[in-house]
Design goal:
- The radius of gyration is 14 Å and the shape is globular.
- With about 100 residues, it is an alpha+beta fold.
- Strands 1, 2, 3, 4 and 5 form a 5-stranded mixed β-sheet that branches.
């Protein structure tokens, strides 16, 4: 299993979470779907601007227990997170080590 194989679970995680970030409750959308949505614009900060100023975040996969702390790529350790929360958690975990 390659290091990035957990990305294959994004569609399943997105469906299980109903597209909502595990941490902040923001609606998310997989980045690969952005070009398919008419009028959607992906910003540099990982937000998707839809019609009428509606904002969604780009979906990402987060390890509940980081791999560097012994976490695995198994489904039970993976949750759907917006890129902002995932980035915030990465910074927090890095400063704790």
């Amino acid at each position: 299993m390659s290091n990035n194989s957990w990305w294959q679970y994004l569609p399943e995680l997105w469906e299980r979470a109903h597209g909502v970030c595990h941490y902040c409750g923001t609606f998310t959308i997989p980045a690969r779907l952005v070009p398919e949505i008419e009028g959607a614009v992906l910003t540099k900060k990982g937000r998707v601007v839809l019609w009428r100023g509606c904002y969604w975040s780009v979906a990402s996969v987060d390890h509940v227990v980081p791999r560097r702390d012994g976490g695995t790529n198994r489904r039970k350790n993976l949750v759907l997170a917006c890129v902002q929360c995932n980035g915030r958690r990465n910074k927090q975990n890095a400063s704790q080590t």
